[in-house]
Amino acid sequence: MRLTLSTLLRPPPPPTDPSPPSPATKADDEPAHLPPAAPPRTRRRRRGRLIALLAVAVTIWSVHGTGVGLASLIEGREGAARLLSGLFPPDLSGSLLSKVLTATLETLQISITALFLGAAIGLPLGVLIAGNVRAPRWIAAGARVLAALLRGVPELLWALLFVATVGLGPAAGVYAVALHAAGLLAKLSSEQMEAIDPGPVEAMRLTGASRSATTLLAIIPQSRNGIVSLLFYQWECNIRSSAVVGFVGAGGIGQALGIALSLFRYDELATLLITVLILVLGVDQISRWLRRALGAETR
């Protein structure tokens, strides 16, 4: 073997490691195969299907348990025919229309006074319940329990309690409808406040604004139109509720409805039902006018 000068000056080759790579190194270089996680949209779709199936099952169970169906309607066809035949034609005599007008005005007084009292109680409760107001936890929990208690007791039961307390008449109807309305307004107004754009609220908090200033200047102005709509809807509900509580002597057109129904005067009952319908439609029209004046897009 001939050695040349270039062979002698060539650098030696790098040493080779004959040992195989360690398991740890191989594990680091090649990550273990994991099953891919389901995307969030797929999980939401599955959860939605499960909730829908549960809702269908609960509905079927409820319908079966209550005995609702064509059979029950067919069995009561004779009574329904007798009632419908008695409703037509309505009694439009002058004496009855005079009584209906008096009862209608009393119903309006009950509904408006109950709306005022219900809003005076329910809207402050709604402010305390709303999560973005960040009221102290114990105050918010107490307001939520109180609102649930007020709306959890039906108006008819409140009316029975107040008839036993203050006696027969529209005052009992006002107290009964107002307390139930306060519970509903507290819940629905708090949800309106929680659904607003959080950007202005956070911007005010970053400037160091207090809780009350943030509520008055950022939360309530954004939810104003929704709360106004709730108030008008509650007024409409108050008219219907006053017609119900009147059955136990709480005044208004409901008391006239109860008398006509108990005496089987179906022609008078038809006139009173038409009056209630006109009242509800009138309040709905007034609500649209006022909401349009406030900038809402209504038809």
Describe this structure in words.
With 299 residues, the chain is mainly alpha-helical. Helices cover 76% and strands 0% of the residues. The chain contains 13 helices and no strands. The protein has helices at residues 5-9, 23-29, 40-66, 70-75, 77-87, 94-129, 137-152, 155-166, 170-194, 198-206, 211-245, 253-262, 266-293. α6 packs antiparallel against α7, α9 (170-194) packs antiparallel against α11 (211-245) and α11 runs antiparallel to α13. The chain is globular and about 65 Å long.
How large, in whole angstroms, is the Cα Rg? 35 Å
Shape: globular
User: pLDDT under 50 segments (min length 5)?
Assistant: none
Order of helices and strands: HHHHHHHHHHHHH
Strand fraction: under 5%
Largest sheet, strands/sense/barrel:
none
Average residue pLDDT: 83
Distance between the termini: 106 Å
**Total of helices:** 13
Helix amount: over 70%
* Alpha-beta classification: mainly alpha
Total count of strands: 0
Note the topology:
Blueprint: H1 5-9, H2 23-29, H3 40-66, H4 70-75, H5 77-87, H6 94-129, H7 137-152, H8 155-166, H9 170-194, H10 198-206, H11 211-245, H12 253-262, H13 266-293
Helix pairs in contact: 5-13, 6-7, 6-9, 6-11, 6-12, 6-13, 7-9, 8-9, 9-11, 10-11, 11-12, 11-13, 12-13
